[in-house]
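Structure ticket #2291
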Amino acid sequence: MSDVVQPRIALGVSYDGSAWQGWQKQPHGLTVQDTLEAALARFAGQPVPTVCAGRTDTGVHAAMQVIHLDAPVLRADTAWVRGVNAHLPPSIAIRWAREVSPDFHARFSARARSYVYLLLEDQVRSPLWAGKAGWSFYPLDVEAMQQAAGYLLGEHDFSSFRASQCQAKSPVRTLHRLDITRRGRFVVFSFTANAFLHHMVRNFVGALTYVGRGRESVQWMADVLAARDRRKGAPTFAPDGLYLTGVDYPAEFDLPLHDASDEIRFGV
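Resolution: structure written out below.
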């Protein structure tokens, strides 16, 4: 008897990371992947392993995470959305589902990822934005940060901005976009790269805020990048304001993707 081919399904997932210990499965079970796979198992009646486009850390949010799974049951796309969501807590939701070709891989097929970091600039912290935005009680010079950001664009060895526990084989990445804008009391950082190292975005934000508050010069950013030494940079910034907003794939996969950056930027 021939083996039954399991269709590969791609899912778009959003989550509020405040209550979760990151994406990746852990023995304690308090992660987004653990919770999502438990919901998938209840829906499908058996375990359903998943693969994501990019792991997010504790407290980091996703407006548009992408995962894939090999479905052990045949269900309509709408059933994967509504059926799985019925077993998920309010902080996690499937946004869309699409059957894809067997060669699709949520991580390795991705061409780029985009993140937004929201930073509240205020003398006093706001409990309404706790867990949803970073905070700086120092006034920040956006123009100086924009100038410093220019040194980071393009392909570089980003060793100065990777976590010590980063498991990536190479520290070389290509940063396509780094925009910094002010919206009222918020400074909004928007990043797009082919891929990111562990803590790379939060380390960027930490270094940029050093420039923005006048603690370091614009040129300092170039010096930190050239040093290829994490000890030369600024402390890793809080995860609260970090959102995975989009994953880019070749058009051949025909996914209903959009970059959710504007949803985050215009929400402040």
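Closing remark: Residues 17 and 61 are 4 Å apart (CA to CA).
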